[in-house]
Every structure is written in structure tokens, then in C-alpha cells.
Design brief:
heterodimer, A: 648 residues, alpha/beta, five-stranded parallel β-sheet, five-stranded antiparallel β-sheet, 18 helices, 15% strand, globular, B: 259 residues, alpha+beta, five-stranded mixed β-sheet, two-stranded antiparallel sheet, 10 helices, 7 strands, 36% helix
Chain lengths: 648, 259
């Protein structure tokens, strides 16, 4: 089976690979594009940009989203910014430097060729978005403004206040709307993909549930693109939107697409701490805040005690009694270390007893120095909406007192395995954006998710999919009456009926919360072999309980959010197990995957390049059977492998 | 805190809706409004109310359906009319950002869906807002395809113009403006898009055409006319002002003048 993992990375010098590849892949003539149909699942930055671009090229596109409008996809919530190697600031940025920072930030577990291409097209994205009317922040002279993000020593992040994801998505959504109006794209809002249909081993369509009527519908195409995002909600509490889920990707895995590096989940350092058991989700405070905010805890335990008892305010603590621990430990990058490093450092201080709220799980993010230096007005201009959001949630004014933050699950670097063309191990099935695995390795740098989603959707997939479709235009339209469709539909109906028939005692959310506790405890920020084994056992038990004791209210033939949640949770229970399994296999620490057994003396990640410099791609082998591990070795021909160093 | 909730229940678009009254207890003031509804739903599920059985009385029971997603005020999915106000009794927040500390122990809270001809009810508190997508499809874009565009810094844009454009672009498409307007007008929504694009050189090119097409689509879809009561601006969670409506009117008149 090893031959299935052919990455198709072109030969030749790194900087010429993409150009050369584009010139060698096939294209489809305009007349033939009209005969070809493509299904796109998801309308975030990846899905919307891909669907729009494919529609412009002349393909017949069907685009699906679970929300009432494509505009609500969770890319909308990205706050901080998008990276590009424009070097507008003259600070010696370049495509190579963005590439290098991304590989290093990912702790040497991503593909060189993919990341270089990402850096290469990053500049086109900014031009594209400006042309669409995205109101990026500008300098007084009218040129585009930049700020810095974690893991970089240059200023290359473009932004629109604290709403960059929203503005970029509205740009892609507008491009999509233009194609919907032109008739090249048909939009199916409130539709959820429940299965992938293969004919002769090729992706030919999907089974979807109309979320308004409950009807189970069949859709055929010549190719299917998965752009359904990540699986962070496996943890129940995360910064993901409530409806974000891993189910579309998981159906592909169960139909034979390999799932790569599932254990690489990003824990974001700056989220609002958990308030209590009634909590439903965690709110992110943009990483951009670390440009001007300084992270600290008190040096003295007695100050910690007083804070927890509300006897003093944080602003009462004198400067010399504050431990700016990131600046202390990582002088070269200070508060702008990558996310995994900042998260672990917060956990280390809290574990040592310096957490600043009642739960002991919070540190301060303080703007005092910046406000003294720049004035409140400039800070308001830069982060006004984030400060307002913080105040509405916590009832604390962050202009006066520091914010309290703690790490939370945010993004999943792992995902469906894809080759250089973004095609999965199933012919005709593509995965883009967060749903694939390829660009971020063990840890994603801030402002790189938006870059990747749009790179894949605008500038990569529209080219590479042509190479596959060039051999398909002679094929007739996919017949949704084919037995493969009937069989897939039958399986979906049986699954739904089974869920209703259980009539157990536990609600869907109760079981999901329990899964979240298991995941955070055993597959969270720090993992070890014993805990992971225990985690797998507990997840398996919970899965059994789910299938024997869940209560799903209502019925199928109606708008039914309980059924939606139950179907997604059924998959989260399996995703969680694969994450734990992958984490157990990877006997090293790298990026966001921290195994307690593998750390340096000062608590940093200790990689094992000799044995684990590979992509772990898992193949589904059937219910109750252990998945098979395939390894794609990672080769670094242009970058010198080194231990990540953010200290000097 | 303990609360009494009067919640609009409606089985589907065709059936007639009604209010049902529920009690919830031990709600933390730090919980969000939607977390409070999560608790209500857990309660309704645990009571095991069988919706099929109650249906005979033309009731929709079981957990209450409501749209929500990001729960941080940006996706625009949540859309509740709480005690007679879109997004409830706090300023510049969406329903998901509303926290229970804004209420008092013992309060009775009335919860309804958006009520507007343009937004038919799908179930309970969930409405169909596809009309907004259709309005944007009529012209809420700049007609550029992927690729072949100039460098991002080729056209300088004055900072204040970019900022003003961003003010309009911040619209989340929640529909509070429509739900609040006594005429059920979508003028603020349309204006936010038209104005934010018209302020930029990239959007200016098609400005007049865009204004005309989007207004025509809004009228066609059954949204009411604007009579300048400014209620929309008061309830907009993103503080989008009627200045954008003024700019829309300018673009629109310009287009009509050219006709």
C-alpha cells in the first residue's frame, strides 16, 4: 500500500517547482469545462475562494454549507491577519524568509515544496483581496499597513482591524455571489454532507441532508473538494464555532482517504479563561494583541493569593513584582514566540501555582506599557473591537486592568492527506484549507491559516484540479441512480434511524462534554504514553455508551439540531481516538504535540528527527480494526534542520 | 439566578406558532444568553418531552431551535428578539455576546424570532435569511476574477476612506436592522455594502449600477421602504450608522439621473 503515498513533489530547484509544475500539468479547454461538474464542501476561505475561482473558469460548481449562508463559515471569526511576503516594510522579508519561518514554526514537520509554494502565492492573495475591495488597514500615505505576529521577526501581517478573517471571507463570498448570479455556481446552504460516494474507486458525489426538511439527497460530480475545516471541536470547548465539525473529512477517511498527523492540534495561548460548567465555547483574543500586550504573572505567591481572593487588583502589583515570563525565557522573541511555546509557558506558570484567577488557570495580558507609550486612542484604533468583546464577556475594562487569558484548542494542523496537487489518496477527491494537513507541520504560525485557505482556493486548486479533470470531460454526468449512490444513501438512513432508536438517558451535549474532558486531560497540552493509552480506553468506552445510551430528540424529517449534533459527535468520538493513537505513536515532542517523556532540561520540545521526521498517514481498516500507519518521509533539501530557538 | 422564559415555539414554516413558558434555575450571571438557552434545552431533553405526541395540539416541543454558531459576535447567525429588542437589552452586542448579568433574578424574559416578511420562520426561533444572500448576489461585489489584478499598493487609498469603508464592511448580516424596522426595510444592510464599496476606488467603478441593482432586489423580495426612523442604527450590533444610507441614496440617485 505504500505506493499510495506518492507526494508528487516536482523535481528541480525549490523556487522553480511550482512554476515548472504548472507548465507541465494539463488544462481543460473552455468548451470542455462546461461539461464538468465539481462539488465543493464548505464555504470558508478555502471553499468560497475555490468555488468562485472554479466557477469563473467555467466549471459547473455545486457548493454546500451547513449554515444559512456561505458567509457564516468560521473563517469569519479569524481576527488578527494574513501573512504575505510583500516586504512593503523594507525589513528584509522575502518569499524565502516566510517559507523558512513557516517551516521552523511548524517544527520541521511540514513539506518544503508545499510551504514554499504557499509563500510564493502569498503576495497574489493580498493583490486579489485589495482588488475585491477588502478594506485593509492603511498608513496615512494610503499604502497598506502591516503588523507583527508570533514566530516572525519581520512585519508581514496585513489586517483589517481585528476582523481580518471576516473581511477576507466577505471578499471570497462576494466573488462566490458573483458566480452564483452568473449561474456557474449553485449554492446549497443548510445542507450537510453525510457521505462520500465512490464509483470505481473515484470520488463521484456525496449524500447530503437538507437541514431544513431532513431530506436525504444525492449529488453527483466529476470531482469533490473538501473544504470543511478542522476537528478542534472534538474537545467540546474550543475557539471553533459551535457547528464546526470534522464529519465531512471523516467520511472521506472511512471511504479510504488517509488521515495525516491527527495529533497535531494547536492550542492558542490567548483565549478568555473558562468561567464555569455552563460554558459552551471559548473565545479567542487575537494573537495580534501580543504586539502591544505583555504577558505576566506575579513573582510572589502572596500576591497570587490576594488576587484570587480579590483583595488586590492586578494594577496594584508593582512593576518589580511582575514576572514577564516570556520576555524572561525567550529574550529574542519575547511576547511574540509561536503559539505552542507561549501556551506551554502559560501552563508551566499555572502548574507552578501562579495562575491569577480563582481556578488558577489564567495569566495576565497587559497593555499598560503600550498605553503609556502610545496613548489609549492608538490602542483603541488597533484593537478596539477586541477590547469591547473582552469587556462584554468578562465585565472588565482592559484599558484599566489587564486581560486574563489561558490557552485553548484553536486549530488542527492535521487533516486529510494530500499530494502536491491537493488530491487525497482517493482519485478525484481534493482537500484544501484546514481540512488538509500539508503546510503547518506541528504548529501553525499566526496569520498563516487565512493565507493557506486562500492560497489553496484561489491559486492552487483551480490549476491542479484541471490536471485530473482533463481526463474526465469525455465521461458523462455522474448518474446519481447508480447503485453506489443507493447504497451510500441507505447507510446514511440506517445510521440516522439507529440514532433515534437508541432512546437512551444521556443528551448529546452531555456525552460531548465528557469526550471533551477526556481529550483535554489525556490528549491535551501535555501528553504521555500511559495517559494516551488510558485516553483511548476511555474514548472507546464512551463511544459504546453513546451508541447505547444517547437520546436524540425529535425526528429526521424536520429541522433538527439534536440530530445534527449527534451525527457529528459520532464522528468526534472516532476522531478523538485516532488523535490519541497518533499521539501515542509519535514518540517525540514537536510543535503543539508535547510528550512529557520527550523534553529538554528547560522544558522545551525534544524532537526525534531520526525516527519521526515523517508524515503519519492513517488508513481506515474497518470498524473495530486498528488503522494502518503509512509514513511519508519528509526531506529537507533547502533548509538546515535545527532545534527551534526563540531565545537568542 | 432563577428565570421565567416565554419562548416562541413553531413547528415549521406552515404551522401557527405560540408562546410556551418555562422556568430555568441556577443560571450563572457570567453565562451568556445562549448558554442559558443550552441549559433550558438540556432541561427539555431530560424531561423527555416527545414532540410527536405533543404535535396533535399543533405544538412544537422538545428542545428549542435557534441559530447560533461562532458565539463571539461575528458570524451573524444568532438572531433573537429578546424582551422586544433585537439582540436584547445591551448595546452593540449580538445575542451570543449578551450575558445574564444584564438580567435580574426572578425576571421574565420573552424570546421571539426575527419577525419580518423577508425572513420567514423555519422553526421556533430560526428564520430564513436567504433574501440577504440574494440581495448581495444582485450586485454586492466588485466584478474582478481571480488573478490578473494590480499590486496591492498600486492605488493608495486615504486612511480615513479605508476606515470609513471598514465601518460599513463590518456588517455581519444578522438582520437585526430588518427585525427592528417598523417597515421591515433592509436599507441599512444594503447601504452598508454599497457604501463600503463605493468608498474605495476598486468599488467605485460599478457604484451606481450596484446601488440600483441591490435596491431593486430588496424591493422585489418584499422588504419595506426606509422612512428614516433610524431604529436600525440603534439596534445594529456593529454600530453601523445611517450615514451609509445617505451614501447609498447618493449612489442610487446618481444612477437614476444617468438613466
Amino acid at each position: 500500500m505504500a505506493e499510495k503515498l506518492i507526494s508528487k513533489i516536482p523535481e528541480g530547484p525549490l523556487s522553480e517547482k511550482w512554476t515548472k509544475h504548472k507548465s507541465q500539468i494539463r488544462v481543460v479547454s473552455p468548451g470542455n469545462k462546461r461539461k464538468l461538474e465539481v462539488i465543493v464542501i464548505g464555504t470558508g476561505l478555502g471553499g468560497a475562494s475555490a468555488a468562485a475561482s472554479l466557477g469563473e473558469l467555467g466549471y459547473n460548481v455545486k457548493v454546500f454549507c451547513i449554515s444559512d449562508s456561505p458567509r457564516r463559515a468560521h473563517s469569519i471569526a479569524a481576527q488578527g491577519g494574513i501573512n504575505a511576503a510583500k516586504n512593503y516594510q523594507n525589513d528584509n522579508d522575502s518569499i524565502y524568509r516566510l517559507f523558512y519561518d513557516t517551516i521552523k514554526g511548524g517544527d520541521y514537520r511540514s513539506r518544503e515544496a508545499n510551504v514554499y509554494r504557499l509563500a510564493e502565492v502569498s503576495n497574489n492573495i493580498i493583490d486579489q483581496c485589495v482588488a475585491q475591495g477588502v478594506p485593509f488597514a492603511r498608513e496615512y500615505g494610503g499604502l497598506l499597513a502591516n503588523r507583527s505576529f508570533g514566530g516572525a521577526q519581520v512585519s508581514r501581517t496585513f489586517y483589517a482591524r481585528g476582523q481580518t478573517g471576516q473581511q477576507l471571507l466577505l471578499g471570497a463570498y462576494a466573488a462566490l455571489n458573483r458566480q452564483i448570479a452568473a449561474g456557474t455556481v449553485k449554492s446549497y446552504p443548510r445542507h450537510e454532507m453525510l457521505d462520500l460516494v465512490l464509483i470505481n474507486g473515484e470520488a463521484k458525489g456525496i449524500i447530503a441532508r437538507n437541514l431544513v426538511t431532513g431530506e436525504i439527497e444525492r449529488f453527483g460530480a466529476h470531482a469533490v473538494v473538501i473544504a470543511s475545516g478542522g476537528y478542534g471541536n472534538t474537545y467540546f470547548l474550543s475557539t471553533n464555532a459551535m457547528n464546526s465539525n470534522g464529519s465531512a473529512a471523516w467520511q472521506c477517511y472511512k471511504k479510504g482517504a488517509f488521515f495525516a498527523n491527527p495529533c497535531f492540534a494547536q492550542i492558542h495561548p490567548t483565549c478568555i479563561p473558562v468561567h464555569g460548567e455552563q460554558q459552551s465555547k471559548l473565545t479567542l483574543m487575537s494573537e495580534s494583541l501580543r504586539n502591544d500586550g505583555r504577558i505576566w504573572v506575579p513573582k510572589k505567591k502572596e500576591d497570587v493569593e490576594k488576587l484570587r481572593k480579590h483583595q488586590i487588583k492586578p494594577s496594584d502589583i508593582a512593576e518589580e513584582d511582575r514576572d514577564y515570563y516570556l520576555e524572561r525565557r525567550y529574550p529574542a522573541f519575547g511576547n511574540l514566540v509561536p503559539r505552542d511555546v507561549a501556551s506551554r509557558a502559560a501552563k508551566e506558570r499555572c502548574d507552578a501555582g501562579y495562575g491569577v484567577n480563582e481556578t488558577g488557570l489564567a495569566v495576565f495580558l497587559d497593555f499598560k506599557t503600550a498605553i503609556e507609550r502610545l496613548g489609549e486612542d492608538i490602542i483603541r484604533k488597533r484593537y478596539g473591537n477586541l477590547f469591547q468583546m473582552y469587556e462584554k464577556i468578562t465585565a472588565t475594562n482592559p484599558y484599566k486592568e489587564p486581560m486574563m487569558i489561558y490557552p485553548a484548542i484553536h486549530y488542527t494542523m492535521g487533516g486529510i492527506w494530500v499530494d502536491y496537487n491537493l488530491m487525497t489518496t482517493i482519485p478525484g477527491l481534493y482537500a484544501i484549507g484546514e481540512a488538509n494537513f500539508s503546510d503547518h507541520g506541528g504548529n501553525r504560525l499566526g496569520a498563516s491559516a487565512l493565507m493557506q485557505g486562500l492560497a489553496d482556493g484561489y491559486f492552487i486548486l483551480p490549476y491542479t484540479i484541471g490536471d485530473y479533470l482533463a481526463s474526465k470531460f469525455k465521461e458523462p454526468k455522474t448518474d446519481t441512480n447508480a447503485p453506489e449512490f443507493a447504497e451510500a444513501e441507505k447507510a446514511v438512513r440506517a445510521k440516522i434511524e439507529k440514532l433515534f432508536s437508541i432512546k437512551g438517558k444521556e443528551s448529546v451535549d452531555t456525552i460531548h462534554k465528557r469526550l471533551g474532558h477526556i481529550m483535554w486531560e489525556y490528549v491535551g497540552m501535555a501528553r504521555n504514553a500511559e495517559g494516551l493509552k488510558e485516553g483511548i480506553k476511555r474514548i472507546q468506552e464512551l463511544k459504546k455508551e453513546f451508541w447505547s445510551n444517547v437520546y436524540v430528540a425529535g425526528e429526521n424529517g424536520e429541522f433538527n439540531q439534536e440530530l445534527e449534533k449527534a451525527l457529528r459527535l459520532a464522528d468526534f468520538l472516532e476522531i478523538g481516538e485516532l488523535m490519541a493513537r497518533d499521539a501515542l505513536n509519535r514518540n517525540e515532542s514537536c510543535g503543539g504535540h508535547f510528550r512529557e517523556e520527550y523534553q529538554t532540561e528547560d522544558g522545551e520540545t525534544k524532537r526525534d528527527d531520526e525516527n519521526y521526521m515523517y508524515v503519519a498517514a492513517w488508513e481506515y481498516k474497518g470498524e473495530g480494526v486498528e488503522p494502518e500507519l503509512h509514513k511519508e518521509p519528509l526531506k529537507y533539501e533547502n533548509i538546515k534542520i535545527a532545534t527551534r530557538n526563540y531565545k537568542d | 439566578m432563577d428565570l421565567t422564559l416565554k419562548v416562541w415555539r413553531q413547528k415549521n414554516a406552515k404551522s401557527k406558532g405560540h408562546f410556551e413558558t418555562y422556568k430555568v434555575r441556577n443560571i450563572s450571571p457570567d453565562s451568556s444568553f445562549l448558554e442559558m438557552l443550552d441549559i433550558l434545552n438540556e432541561q427539555l431533553i431530560s424531561e423527555g418531552i416527545d414532540p410527536v405526541a405533543v404535535e396533535k395540539g399543533c405544538k412544537s416541543s422538545g428542545p428549542v431551535s435557534f441559530d447560533h454558531d461562532c458565539r463571539e459576535g461575528i458570524c451573524g447567525a444568532c438572531s433573537l428578539y429578546i424582551n422586544g429588542r433585537a439582540h436584547g437589552p445591551d448595546d452593540e452586542v449580538t445575542t451570543c455576546q449578551l450575558h445574564m448579568r444584564k438580567f435580574k433574578d426572578g425576571d421574565t424574559i420573552t424570546i421571539e424570532p426575527w419577525r419580518s416578511k423577508g425572513f420567514p420562520v423555519i422553526k421556533d426561533l430560526v428564520v430564513d435569511r436567504q433574501a440577504f444572500d440574494k440581495i448581495l448576489q444582485a450586485g454586492g461585489f466588485v466584478s474582478v476574477g481571480t488573478g490578473g489584478v494590480p499590486d496591492g499598493n498600486a492605488i493608495p487609498i486615504p486612511q480615513e476612506k479605508a476606515e470609513e469603508s471598514m465601518d460599513g464592511a463590518a456588517c455581519i448580516g444578522c438582520g437585526a436592522c430588518v427585525a427592528t424596522c417598523k417597515n421591515g426595510s433592509a436599507m441599512l444592510f444594503v447601504a452598508a455594502r454599497v457604501s463600503s464599496l463605493a468608498l474605495l476606488p476598486q468599488g467605485k467603478v460599478e457604484g451606481a449600477k450596484r446601488a440600483k441593482a441591490m435596491v431593486a432586489k430588496m424591493d422585489e423580495l418584499g422588504f419595506g421602504a426606509c422612512t428614516n426612523t433610524r431604529a436600525c442604527e440603534m439596534e445594529c450590533p456593529k454600530h453601523i450608522t445611517v450615514n451609509h444610507i445617505a451614501r447609498l441614496n447618493r449612489e442610487f440617485l446618481c444612477a437614476k439621473f444617468k438613466d
